[in-house]
Specification:
single chain; mainly alpha; about 65% helix; about 0% strand; flat; disordered N terminus; binds zinc ion
Length: about 475
């Protein structure tokens, strides 16, 4: 049951490994979508990409000089000229240097070879600047992270503070250098460990009280209570699961025991009071710091993506594939990868029994996806609401009821409007057809009269021909007589 802290693979894999190529490609980009299990915001690819695109990518003069230097052997004159140009104009940027009119005039007077080489190097640098994966410094991402705070879980604000502290103390260390620094890692590991330890002690003090309440119980029941306490302490420490869900699991854990072994209502309430005060371990900034050291070590952009891995939305099949669940949007809800992990071992029926808020959260999500479809940003998914309702009913043995009545009503009204429009068009077409029919009839009668005329003409022609033949014959006869 225990899962390590944010046990995550490559964040891309989390999504794509579960989906066949090409399916749901659009769905991954729905923004502001909340997790079906914990109701906290998740991040879509769009939001993460937007965040990354907004990071100003700083390329230093040294980076450019180093790149030009690599042409020193093959394009010596051109490289020398550009290096000198940069060094003698320390205040001018690359772009303004290579577009300066005086510089261009100077280049025009050089031999043709050198000119060509300069053009080649300039093009190379422009491309390099575009594709370069530069160092990213925490100071560049902290303002953006602060803006995202609302979307990110609790531990993140502490993590941003930690990062802020480092960036002020070590402004020349890039993000990856800070994350991979062994001294920092050890420091945060120590804090995380001590947080774990103090949490355990805190839990122990509460579970001791629970055990104390049961001191008059028979020995075997007390053993059972001890075992429950142990399991509750474990659940309280699973950072992967949302606090509400952990609370629900702990309540469920003791429910049967209380039902069977504690008859007195007052005492039962006393138990419940203690149980609900079992403290839950919360994700801290140190935990997030440690999470990152397992990700991409040498690429700042990838490392930043790793930072969002725990809040990225992942797809989960409502009806599992093993039970012929389909790979369609209508058979899926979205959860954090960690929440998804939490569900894997549990049926919807059970989740909804121990954690009734689940039904509301799923409904919220279905409404969000539906409104996204209605807004026209997601085309070709108009059957989603009805489909997801059916999938969830099937997956939960009829317990998870999603309300899509309003959508169906709207779709029906829309379809009716469409039919009316079609009928109108049809009427218009019909009148056009009768107009054409009339024209055809006119043309046909014209054709008939022309045919009549043609036949009459033929008759006259035949008459004339036989007369000519007769006259020819008579003429021949007269010639012979002569
Ligand atoms: Zn969640």
């Amino acid at each position: 049951m225990l899962v390590g802290l944010y046990k995550h693979d490559n964040y891309n894999q989390q999504f794509t490994s579960r989906l066949p190529e090409g399916v749901f490609r659009d769905v991954r980009y729905i923004p502001h979508i909340r997790c079906a299990l914990c109701d906290k915001f998740m991040m879509s690819y769009t939001e993460i990409n937007e965040f990354i695109e907004k990071i100003p990518k700083i390329i230093t003069r040294e980076d450019i000089l180093r790149e030009i230097q690599s042409f020193d052997d093959t394009k010596h004159d051109a490289a020398r000229y550009l290096i000198k140009l940069i060094n003698t104009n320390p205040k001018k940027g690359w772009k303004s240097l290579v577009t300066d009119n005086n510089v261009l005039r100077e280049i025009m007077q050089m031999p043709k070879d050198t000119q060509d080489n300069i053009v080649e190097i300039v093009q190379h640098i422009n491309k390099y600047k575009k594709n370069l994966n530069p160092n990213i410094y925490p100071s560049q991402i902290i303002p953006g992270l602060k803006r995202l705070k609302k979307l990110l879980p609790e531990g993140y604000s502490q993590f941003i503070e930690i990062l802020d502290g480092y960036s002020k103390k070590f402004p020349h260390k890039s993000f990856k250098e800070i994350i991979n620094d062994k001294v920092f890692i050890n420091y945060h590991r120590q804090i995380a460990n001590s947080q774990g330890k103090s949490h355990k002690l805190h839990v122990q003090s509460v579970t001791d009280r629970i055990l104390n309440l049961g001191k008059k119980l028979p020995y075997c029941d007390r053993l059972k209570l001890k075992e429950l306490n142990k399991q509750a302490a474990q659940i309280a420490g699973i950072l992967n699961y949302s606090p509400d869900f952990r609370r629900a699991l702990i309540n469920e854990l003791y429910a049967e025991f209380l039902q069977k072994n504690v008859e007195n209502r007052l005492i039962r309430n006393q138990y419940r009071k203690y149980i609900s005060s079992i403290p839950l371990r919360m994700v801290s900034g140190d935990d997030i710091f440690l999470l990152l050291k397992n990700g991409h070590k040498d690429n700042d952009i990838e490392l930043i993506k790793d930072m969002f891995a725990p809040v990225l939305s992942s797809f989960e099949h409502a009806v599992p594939k093993s039970q012929d669940g389909k790979n369609t949007l209508s058979n899926g809800i979205f959860m954090h990868a960690a929440c998804n992990n939490a569900r894997n071992t549990m049926s919807y029926e059970r989740i909804i029994t121990i954690f009734p808020a689940f039904a509301k959260y799923v409904q919220n999500q279905v409404s969000r996806v539906t409104s996204f479809i209605k807004s026209g940003q997601l085309k070709g998914y108009s059957k989603y609401p009805v489909g997801i309702r059916d999938s969830l009913l099937e997956a939960s043995n009829g317990k998870l009821k999603i309300n899509v009545r309003r959508y169906i009503r709207e779709m029906k009204a829309k379809t009716l409007r469409q039919i009316e429009q079609d009928i109108e068009n049809l009427e218009e077409n019909r009148s056009q057809v009768s107009e054409i029919d009339k024209q055809v009839a006119e043309l046909l009668s014209k054709k008939e009269s022309l045919e009549q005329e043609f036949q009459d003409g033929n008759k006259t022609l035949a008459k004339h021909t036989s007369l000519v033949n007769y006259l020819n014959k008579e003429e021949n006869k007269m010639r012979k007589k002569k």
